[in-house]
């Protein structure tokens, strides 16, 4: 009898851990959809704006239109 109870206890604990893991993943995905975090992992920081560029862009009041051919 104790072996059977032990197996039920292990199964219940496993399902609980699975459920908690799924809930944590779902919460992480939802939080990630609201947070806009980008990392530039290139060696030369190719996609990162420099300090002076950020300063110039902060001072611009109008929209900037860039046309690429």
What's this model, at a glance?
61% of the residues lie in helices and 0% in strands.
Structural write-up:
The mean pLDDT is 88. The protein has helices at 2-34, 51-59. It has 69 residues and is mainly α. 61% of the residues lie in helices and 0% in strands. 0% of the residues are buried.
Total beta strand runs: 0
Radius of gyration, CA atoms, in whole angstroms: 25 Å
Number of helices: 2
Give the N-terminus to C-terminus distance in angstroms: 77 Å
Q: Quick check: average pLDDT?
A: 88
User: Strand portion, in percent?
Assistant: under 5%
**What share of the residues lie within helices?**
55-70%
Low-confidence stretches: none
Computed structural class: mainly alpha
The main sheet comes to: none
Task: Tell me, briefly, the overall form.
Answer: rod-shaped
Helix and strand element order: HH
In terms of topology, how is this protein built?
Elements: H1 2-34, H2 51-59
Keywords:
69 residues, 2 helices, rod-shaped
